[in-house]
Amino acid sequence: MPSRFPNSSASLPCRGEGLSEQVDSLPEHREETLHGNHALALSILDAIPDLMFQIRKDGTFLSYKGGRDELYAPPEQFLGKKVKDVLPEELADLTMRHVKAALSNGGTQLYEYELPISGETRCFESRMVKSGKDQVVAVVRDITERKRDEREIQSSEERLKLIFEHAPDGYFVSDFKGYFVDGNKATEEISGYKREDIIGTNFLRNCPIVPIDQVPKVAKILAQNIKGKATGPDELEIVPKDGPRRIVEVKTLVMKIKGEPRVLGIVRDIHERKEAEAKVREFQEQLTSIFQTVRDGLALIDLSGTILRVNKAFATMSAYHEDELVGKQIHKLEMFSKAGSAQLMTGYAKMRLGRRTPAFELEASRKGGERFYLEVSADPIKKEGTVVGMTVSLKDITEHKRAEEELREHAKHLEGEV
Fold it and tell me: What gap in Å lies between CA 95 and CA 72, rounded to an integer?
């Protein structure tokens, strides 16, 4: 899958794109208010090594975070395009099914897939969550090495011993009754217990790591293992020896060790990641709230002039629905006359060169044909000093223009009386 979050305020970033651009794209008088949250969001995002993508309901890639060498295709070949036009058909269908599921039930969607990257088939794990009304954020991790490890574990007990002890994730072995048989160094670090202190304890009864309310989840996993099935990843809460509960992600495989059936569990501490995801979602909600409550109309557009997002004020003043605006080039909207479109294009050309465009006035028409007047201003969206888009602000000055006209007419009337 590709990598990069949109250069707009409701998107995921490329190491700081997306969310940072959302803040940068708001009116300047909002930036100081958001500065602290902006820095926090960037710190959180930088701490997450995974690829991130922001995808709209219709499958359009809006933005990404990650390195170019991790991508299935370069950003210019997938940003602003739909999943079905970028990914292989089977993966595109799989991705859209999870997009729809995430938007409909609000839960985390988890799936794995393979893609050729730089001539090599690599495996990925995608965690997809709802982000706003009609967008999702996919956090993608390259699990190629982990998948290779799992295959090797199943084929070689000797290799299992080496990987088992030095694996970065927690590895543990249990029997079908739920008794803890062994664990590696990472398991000790995650749990806070030495392996000899918990060997012989039972996950379903007296293992100090498993709180009683998590026993049903553990029993369900073990029931699948008894049937010879692998499970996960499943999220569980554990109680480390020192400290409060933590969230871990558990996968299990059924295998034989010295002829005896055993369960191999792979545990990853995802507590910080879950907290970071929650903070990112909260921050995005704050940005969305600000974006939608601004009284002036706002539109976020990319380098081609294509509208990525508009706020409620923009839709209200134009009388067009958001779906009729997003995806269109702003200078081609029917609400602008040829002269107005030319003014927009001139301002946009200056903006692409990094030059600020002074506010200007133009006449427009609402969807029903009603004429009104706007004051238009624009601010560039930059990443690392390069203009990647801009924020267009529309202020309805119709009443102001009418008042000016009335004053002029009144002045003429007074002159005529004199």
Answer: 14
> Which ranges of 201-337 does DSSP label H, i.e. alpha helix?
215-226, 271-293, 312-318, 322-325
Paired tokens of 295: 């009284």
pLDDT at 415: 66
Helix (H, G, I), strand (E, B) or coil at 3: coil
Across 81-230, the runs of DSSP E, i.e. the strands, are 109-117, 120-130, 135-142, 170-174, 180-183
CA–CA dist 184, 196 (Å, integer): 11
CB atoms within 10 A of CB 343: 18
221 alpha-carbon distance from chain centroid: 30
Residue 214's φ and ψ, nearest 5 degrees, are: -95, -5
CA–centroid distance for 265 within its chain: 29
**What is the distance between the alpha carbons of residues 298 and 322, in angstroms, rounded to a whole number?**
12
Q: Strands 297-302, 386-396: parallel, antiparallel or unpaired by DSSP?
A: antiparallel
Q: Could you read off the pLDDT of 301-346 as tens digits, one per residue?
A: 888 889 999 999 899 889 999 899 999 988 888 898 888 888 888 8
Q: Which amino acid type is present at position 300? A: L
For 18-50, write each residue's pLDDT tens digit.
444 444 444 554 555 545 565 665 566 666 778
First to last CA, the chain: 77
Contacts of 54 (CB under 8 A, 6+ apart): 5, 6, 10, 11, 12, 18, 61, 62, 63, 64, 131, 135, 136, 137, 138
Higher pLDDT, 27 or 415: 415
Q: What letter does residue 355 receive in the DSSP assignment?
A: P
What are residue 217's phi and psi, to 5 degrees?
-65, -45
- Characterize the bridge pairing of strands 307-310 and 297-302: antiparallel
The answer to pTM > 0.90 is: no
